[in-house]
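Risk register update: the risk of archive-format incompatibility is retired. Evidence:
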Amino acid sequence: MAHKKGQGSSRNGRDSNAQRRGVKLYAGQEAKAGNIIVRQCGNKFDAGKGVGQGKDYTLFALVDGFVRFDRKGSRVNVVATREEACAAQ
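Archived output:
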């Protein structure tokens, strides 16, 4: 027990950067192909039509269009027109 354990302020000075997860484009907003729609940890949202999923579960638009969440809110789609995107909301 030769190590000093008191006065730990110099050891405790670490803090990690935030990971900035969450929804980036909401329902009815325009998405271009490649735009990130949701950054997530695990499958909180599933990829629907016109949406791809990255290896870190990031959802991104595969086609140009408008973002639409289904009624349960668990599936994300990219549809061609704004009316179609807002119809299910």
